[in-house]
Amino acid sequence: MRSTVLGLALAALTVLALLAGGTHPAAGTTRSAPPWPAPTDLSERAGAAGLRNVWGERLAEHVHTHLTVLDGDQPVTVPANVGHSDRERFAAQLHTHDTSGILHVESPTRDTFTLGQFFDEWGVPLSAWHVGGLRGELTVWVDGRRFLGDPRSIELTNRREIVLDVTTIGEVPRLPALFDWPPQYR
């Protein structure tokens, strides 16, 4: 009887944890509120995302996607050097160089890279219900249109624009202005 009660209590706690925002975060990830810094363990984080160091390799694919993360109407900085370090001669196939929100796919092979891989590499949990430790309702836009699927599955293609907006439940999310691509990306 005692084991049945204990089992039911554990099941209830699991359900509550899932309702509160998903499963326990993987090692190296954070459920805190932003800002979320770039990870310092580049190789480990890249490996967690299914990526590897391609520094100095000839590129077969070179595309750029822009990511905007909003906490309501407050922008969240996508940090520089997620998956990249000149000093360490490290460049994962998917990385950032600066805080513009531009995600760089630079790969010696043509593959499909996803937003979920970038968040795994960054160490920030992402699901259809949350971004990191932000609480509220997640609205996703891809190229100016509402996206209703799992944001982790969004493919990173050239000049794609992705917006993740976490608002207070019941608040009407607003699509921000389109990203003004710098001339070198046009």
Strands, helices and their partners?
Blueprint: H1 2-19, H2 42-48, E1 61-71, E2 74-76, E3 84-85, E4 90-91, E5 94-95, E6 102-107, H3 115-122, E7 137-142, E8 145-147, E9 160-167
Parallel strand pairs: 1-9
Antiparallel strand pairs: 1-2, 1-6, 3-4, 5-6, 7-8, 7-9
Helix pairs in contact: 2-3
Give a verbal description of the structure.
With 186 residues, this protein is an alpha+beta fold. The protein is built from three helices and nine strands, in the order ααββββββαβββ. Strands 1, 2, 5, 6, 7, 8 and 9 form a seven-stranded mixed beta sheet that branches. Strands 3-4 form a two-stranded antiparallel ribbon. The longest helix is centred in the N-terminal third of the chain and has 18 residues, at 2-19. The termini are far apart.
